[in-house]
Amino acid sequence: MSFNTFGQLFRVTTWGESHGPSIGAVVDGCPPGIELSEADIQPFLDRRRPGTSRFTTQRQEPDQVKILSGVHEGKTTGTPISLVIENTDQRSKDYANITARYRPGHADVAYDMKYGHRDPRGGGRSSARETAMRVAAGAIARKVLGAGVVIRGAMVAMGAHGINRANWDWAQVEQNPFFCPDATAAQAWEAELDAVRKAGSSIGAVLEVIAEGVKPGLGAPLYGKLDADIAAALMSINAVKGVEIGDGFAAAALRGEENADEMRMKEGEIEFFSNHAGGILGGIATGQPILARFAVKPTSSILIPKRSVSADGEEVEVMTKGRHDPCVGIRAVPVGEAMLACVLADHLLRHRGQTGR
Is 160 exposed, middle or buried (0-12, 13-18, 19+ CB in 10 A)? Predict the structure, then answer.
């Protein structure tokens, strides 16, 4: 299995399976001299960790990260940083009934079509368990970017129900189990997701990630566009089926004069009146907040029987037992933040290499 690495100068390679003994990552290209310890990474992993509420999988993983290399006396050395997290609560027997059966909507069938073999225990590499290492790498990327860059994410829709943007409050994001900036919407979602969970089903979500304080100039025209790399990074997250930058698809409904982000000079600096472009023009950051949204489909592992086929070509019914997220989008918020951080760190190093600043 190839393509386990992303990034050009800030490169991240992840390894391990959902039900293997451990998962890990190697972060290559991190500049030397940056203060780094497990304590800088752990808070981000704690936000993604399973079992933190009744609305996520009840698999209990402490997700304690260990730094094995690339750090000496509390600072990065410039050599590869190796990270590992032990898996402690695997329950592979839950997957015994789908060893030779494909879950509709899941990567099971595609993996078999490609490799002729797959790991049915929690989905192996196709499991969202792998995203813990992306979050760990994202914490290192934030250190590369520096404290001046602030990256935050929120859930803005669950199923068909979105937030009221007039109620947006970043303080609310850490005060409910949905990373929701609208306290009223979060209350309504509790009742909805309880009903979905009790029915043995699942539901999708839309997440929004924003990076503020990004210096203008990151990105390159044509084949190194910043927004293209952000879109690719977010699309690589498990269960993501759509990405948009700025106004995204809504921009198609605007007229040219409405979509254009007008400018003026203020105290010697360019000031924009709006941000329909999501902080990126021609693939290059403008210095405005970078804004992206991504859609996460409903979890494929559900208790409701669905028609499928087996590896032997039999027509079967599939019902997945075990512990699964009724809305995998909840824990995708810190993953989206991490992927945005990794792309920005990569482009920052590329920008320095080309321009020297």
Answer: exposed
